[in-house]
Amino acid sequence: MTEMQLSLINFPYREMLSNIFQDYSNDFEFTASGIFRKIVPPLCPECGHPMSHNGFNTCQKRHLGGANVGKYLCGACGKSTEEDRDFWIKLKADFFGIVTEICTRLRLNHVSYEVIESIMGYLYPRDKDTIRNMVQCAIEETDVPSVKNIQFVHYDEQHPKAGRNQKYRLTLLDSVTRQVIADELFDSKDADTIEGFLRRNLDTQKQIFIVTDLYRGYSNVFKRVFGNKVIHQFCLLHLNKLIVNDFPRKTSIEQELLKYKMLNIFFNRELEIEFLSTLIEEEKMMRQRSNKEYKSWIAEAKHLFYDFVRRLELRRRRESKNLEQRTYHEALNNFKFLKMQSDSFMISVRKRLDKIEELWPNLTAFYFTDNAPATNNPIENYYSTSLKTHRKKQLEEPGIKEQIKLSALKRAGVFGRPQKSLLNAFFMFIPFLDTG
Ligand SMILES: [Zn+2]
After folding, report:
1. What's the superkingdom here (predicted)?
2. In sequence order, what E strands does 47-203 have?
3. What is the pLDDT of residues 339-393, one digit of tens each?
């Protein structure tokens, strides 16, 4: 422990000082006039002659103060040396580490560098280029902890624009931990790019279950990369979106009912179907009347129905429940029943049923693997928190990369509770604010 020569000025800080110098041996002293040095000057590194104390150098940091480190002079050869200033470097590193962490968390929440600069004006003034530099260096140095025992993964793409350039963001998420396995930005999303991305980030020797969107030709890439070790599931919520898009925006009750019967294949929509069924006869009757009368009737009927659907949604949200998933046999029966009647359906729905039949193994793979996911919901949620659609248009490429890495770090739990406040780090500088 360093010997402290306490003066009236530094006496109140003795605890703080002994904390700061705790890593130094008994050979050191902190003098009454505030110089940190060896009690007995060292031997000259050039000629071995004992050196003598020779004043000090001051290390300064704006707004934080300064510390004096002793200098030594060799009487024999004239060599001059300085005591090491590691304690000062550490104090600064602690302080700026916290400053960087504050800025990084603001970035994580999409605060612009301009706004961070203005906030930092109240804490420790720094210009926005310095802040950007600090944050980006810190992000680059932090590794995303790797996910172990990958089994169930979600794969998805986003197509953000960096200025005028179309970029492709490919993302792999671990289904169990919801952690990011890989999240990278490319100039292209051709089969080779996707293949390389998968090979680099997944164990291709291991059995894997991957969820993706429909119709993007991933199956071939997966077979090339994983051979027969891959189970490929199409996201059922994406299928639902496609089903909804098969219908015109202004549906009749009859069409609406068919839409919900389609959605009912994989998810329980009985309540909606029941509601719509009670309106079917009435719609037939209203259709006999004038166009104007039907129009006002359908507007009212749809209003009531959407209201009903919204209330069901709210109830699910309140109870934190998702739509109830059909069992395999329910799904199969619902599908077969619709397929049988399909001659009477509109063409887009008939085509959709054919497609579902064709993709049936990929739509139902999750039924045959324990605890397997059927949707890409986790990755949708991840995207919605990390790079919102309205934001991905304005960001430049470094900005997109920064957001990608930040979200991955957040998922991995890197941002825990702060260990130390900025004030804690600042208090350590108090002995040096005025060293007398
Ligand atoms: Zn010397």
Report:
1. Archaea
2. 51-61, 65-74, 80-82, 152-158, 161-162, 165-166, 168-174, 180-186
3. 999 999 999 999 999 999 999 999 999 988 888 899 999 998 888 877 665 555 5
